[in-house]
Each structure stands twice: as C-alpha cells, then as structure tokens.
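Pilot study result, target chain (155 residues):
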Amino acid sequence: MQIIKYEEKYKKEIPELFTNTIHKTCNKDYTNEQLKAWANLDIDYKTWEDRLNKTKPYLAIIDKKLVGFVEFYDGYIDCFYVHFEYQGKGIGKMLLNYIFKLAKQNKIKKLRVDASITAKPFFEKFGFKEVKKNRVKRAGFELINFSMQRVENEK
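Predicted structure:
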C-alpha cells in the first residue's frame, strides 16, 4: 500500500468510497434516513470535485485502487474513510500514522477529529479522547458524532 497526495484521476472514486462505506459500515449505528442525509446516494460529483480540489486529501492506494482517504489541515482530521471491503486490514492505522508523521513534521501537537459513533472506538485506540458529544443536523435529520482530540505526549 502507498499513501499519495490527491490525484484528479480518483475524483469519482473518492465520493463513491465515502458513500458506500458509510452505508455499509455505519448502518448498525445510524438509521437508513440518517445515512442518506449524511451520504446522499445520488452523488453530486461536481460538489465533490470542487471540495477535493481545495482539500487535496491523502489517498491510500493498493494496486492503483483507492482503498481509503483522509483530509488533514491545521491539526484537523476530516473525511477519514477506509473502503468497506478493506476494513480491518491495517489501512486506517497506516493512514492515521501518516497523519501523525505529518503533524510531527509540522510541529502540530493537538489533533482533532469529529468521529461518528462507528469510528469513535478506532480513534480511541490511538489515544483520542472525547471532548464533547455533538448533534449535527443534515437534511432535516439529527446525527450524533463526537469531537475528539489527541495531544502529543498525552497518549
């Protein structure tokens, strides 16, 4: 596996990975309506392309196939997703370790993430602690997530 900076050739695969992963892995923690509000099955590729051109995510690639991605800026981890068929294979750990390395290189001591109910245990394994529980409105539905942080030397 390799981690690369965003390449435009993956602009369609990223929103598809995002949407499919949410619907296939978060369905034990969120209702069908909440999942649709969070990750609309009718993907707006133009909106995603605009976002990706700004955020320039880091991509996890295996044999030229996108298996995960993460956006990272100013100590904030956003859009951290591993393809549902590749979960439990160490890809999330590799992506997160890559973020830890970037943070260290840039002298960022505090990392923040807003984690879903599903993702919270993953981040806790890596030393993130819950700061607060959030109720986020999306398309008229309320979703729960957690603001979490990890401060270097606090692990």
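One observation from the pilot: Helices lie at 13-25, 32-38, 45-55, 91-105, 120-125. A full batch analysis is planned for the follow-on phase.
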